[in-house]
Amino acid sequence: MLRHAGFVRVKEAAQLLGVSPNTVRSWGADGKITEFRHPANNYRLYKRKDIERLLRKVEQSATAAGVATKRRSKPR
Length: 76
Prior knowledge:
Blueprint: E1 7-9, H1 10-17, H2 21-30, E2 36-37, E3 44-47, H3 48-72
Helix pairs in contact: 1-2
């Protein structure tokens, strides 16, 4: 039911982001990812859209860092 609503659990969020489940929990506690709680069992849940948005942000950051590194490493 929750997957149809666009939510994922900690393990799936971690797999999508390529980090450990503890990292996802930490990011949730720090407010980097908005956490929701399942009403019946209190499991942490994350919106898939939020995870995908964070992933794009990380990828853009990595790309920008790579471009900056290439610019600095050019011989003069």
